[in-house]
Amino acid sequence: MSKIFIDACFGKETSYTPVWMMRQAGRYLPEYMQVREDAGSFLDLCHDPEKAAEVTIQPLDIVGVDAAILFSDILVIPDEMGMDLSFVKGEGPVFSDPVRTREDLDKLLGGEAAAQKLTYVYDTIKLLREKLDARGDDKALIGFTGAPWTLATYMIEGQGSKSYAISKKMMYSDPKLLHAILAKVTEVVKYYLQKQIEAGVDAVQIFDSWAAAIEPAKYDEFSWKYMVEIAEYIKEKFPHIPVILFPKGIAAFIECGSVYGNFDVFGVDWGTPMALAKEKLGEKYVLQGNMEPCRLYSKEATTECVEALQKIMGGKRHIFNLGHGILPDVPVENAKHFVSECHRVSGKR
After folding, report:
1. Active-site pick, 16, 28, 154, 192
2. Cβ-Cβ contacts under 8 Å for 299 (sequence gap 6 or more)
3. How far, in Å, CA of 227 to CA of 247, rounded?
4. Of 154, 239, 232, 243, nearest to 203 (Cα)?
5. Do the beta carbons of residue 263 and residue 193 sit within 8 Å?
6. Catalytic, out of 23, 28, 164, 269
7. pTM of the prediction?
8. Using 50, 70 and 90 to split pLDDT, how confident is the model at 349?
9. Which of 16, 32, 36, 269 is catalytic?
10. What is the CATH number of the domain that holds 253?
């Protein structure tokens, strides 16, 4: 069965514009919170294919989105490379053994050997493939990974950061080491996405959540070129699989015309005007996004934005989404309203 989301990713004409939301399987849903409580912890939930599949599918039935995105976490990659990951209440993810030297890096597993350890992710995808195929609808399944730069910041800092001072100190004082970290992570990511596709995902997205931490003059060297390398690897092996790249906070990078590469969909963050993205990128890439997630607190503000996006994009070469992830205290009714408004303005019958 043809999937409307996949058709849209390839720029084909569709009967309406599909919609999904980043972080759509998450804390704003009471049903998700119940499954997470049953699992015991966030990491336990990621490691449990049955429960991870359950929460992946929840937004399809509850909110009505057109695609499911695999429930997992970007940090399972460095975790399986051999770093010690824990989720600390009030602090988020923490690595007790950050990578600061070549010796630290050399201790980590790389390439396919590291990717092979993520069996619970592939088992979740296989289970989801069975469940989604059994439904007989046209809902797509999106796999994902963090971009090498975003993963490297966690690995180097040891946790989330506001300044990225340790990573950026390395960027300017020891760029060879940073490139070595990025190259090693890139190889793992290539195999990780390949194995996700072989397990059954219909599309993949690469999230560069911390793109804005890099000055525009250095962004290509330390992030974008690695994302493009991964996309090229996937497109060469799997030309029928759409690749979505989402770098958050790089409007200046778009404006100077530096987006390039063999991929299908460019995720536009909420800080980048969609009209600018369309002007610079709309002929080459399908655009995804880009409503400010906080608009979901108001149905009126949501409708206003959805109508504006429809007016700019005209229902062509576009996928509705937020410009970053949905926030945990958004009312479920408002999330449903967003999806229904996207369907309404784009002509779903």
Report:
1. 154
2. 334, 337
3. 10
4. 243
5. no
6. 23
7. 0.97
8. low
9. 36
10. 3.20.20.210
Is 73 a catalytic site residue? yes
Pure H helices in 136-164: 148-157
Question: Other CB atoms closer than 10 Å to residue 142's CB: what's the count?
Answer: 22
CA distance 81 to 27: 28
**295 labelled catalytic:** no
344 catalytic? Reply is no
Contact 335, 326 (CB under 8 A): yes
**Closest among 236, 293, 289 to 263, alpha carbons compared:** 236
How many domains is the chain built from?
1
- The residue to which tokens 């909420």 are assigned: 270
**Sign of the dihedral defined by the CA atoms of residues 93, 96, 98, 104, in that order:** negative
Query: Taking Cα atoms as reference points, which of 253, 247, 250, 251 lies closest to residue 267?
Result: 247
* Those residues with Cβ within 8 angstroms of residue 2's Cβ, 6 or more apart along the chain or in another chain: 138
Residue 89 predicted with pLDDT over 90: no
Domain residue limits at 230: 4-346
Q: What is the pLDDT of residues 131-162, one digit of tens each?
A: 999 999 999 999 999 999 999 999 999 999 99
